[in-house]
Amino acid sequence: MIVPARRIAVVRALQLGDMLMAVPALRALRAGYPDAEITLIGLPWAASFAARLDRYVNRFLPFPGWPGIDEVSYDEARTERFIAEARAHDYDLVIQMHGSGGQSNPFALALGARVTAGYYDGPHPHPMRIGLSALRSRQPNRLSRARERGAGGEGIRSPSPAHGRGAGGEGVLWPAAPYPHDQPEVLRNLGLAALLGCPDRGTALEFPLLSEDHAEADALLEPLAGDDRPLIGIHAGARPPARRWPLARFAAVADNLARRHDGHIILIGGPGEEEIVAAVAERMSARALNLAGRTSLGGLAALLARLDLFIGNDSGPAHLAEAVGAPTVRLFGPADVDRWAPLDRTRHAVVRHPVACSPCGYWECPIDHRCLRRIDPADVTRAADGLLAPTKRGPSGGVGGSFIPVGHGTGRLQQMPTRPDGARREEPQRNHVREGICGA
Questions:
Q1: What pTM was computed for the model?
Q2: CA dihedral sign, ordered 260, 263, 269, 273
């Protein structure tokens, strides 16, 4: 490895979909540092997520907040305590995996590791101000001390000894690279692992399932037990209204697929999405199993793993379905399809209508929502037909996917198969809005 390390911290204080897209990088990091203690610093909800990934993550710490990072409200005293404890833990390496670095690089540097790695936007930002006056009296960092005493710094080459963190509260980001705005999110995160010399272990997402998750799914699906009709999940929600395809069109697609494939329709939604899901059910002619608000995160994942097809907006459950192996049809409107669409073009289809104003960062569309309203139910039904067609099923149960632009224009995303060995402000979150654990 470029940077020898026994204690590593990864900063990524984001939501479900964003965390799932970091799993390939965590997998690569563990391959590169098989014996290191790896700590994930994330939002409080992610403690259970980290526990599931115990093959890659040893410890979890809740992100304390930092000026300019909106995911957690900033309390200076709390953040100072967190940083003091992090420095006492004596990290060898901190990896900033929370976007382009405008606010997150100063936080990562404040943790006082011997080496801090990450992306940056614009000119290389060294030296960087840490930003807390209480930290400006700290002593020179361990990289400088190790260089002075010739211990523990083998293999580490920083730009200059003058760029170490010193009494003025300054630090250096190294290894570092310009933020790759034009890459899919999974590959951006893998780029950080590659920067450290970690081997590529594939781009597949992961979400390990527990026995209690399967038991919950068994109970939820008990009303449908006894036949082998296809299970088709529909998720009409998304936290930003701008990402929601019209509910009546979801209902039309559900009716189409129930009729054409004799499928069971399962309506999915997280807490707070009950009204959205009820509105879809009211507009349907076919019967549906409404599970909105009735699943834990693990139970939802186990349920998604049993689906023959998932259909939904770009949201956390869509990424979760991909992570547990369900074929998906995703509807993209304002979200950046190049960044967030699945890389595997065999088991997943993307449907979008290219328009000049997409991608955008609006929470609610200020005009006519043309990016999603111009997608017709027939377009989504056609994509679903291709994934449900029995003649297209492969050994894994997957089916041929596609990228389907509709209307005028063409899709920008190229087909990028998953490697066979893979079992906006500063841009940490998608399009300047945050994804919820189930709603996104």
A1: 0.81
A2: positive
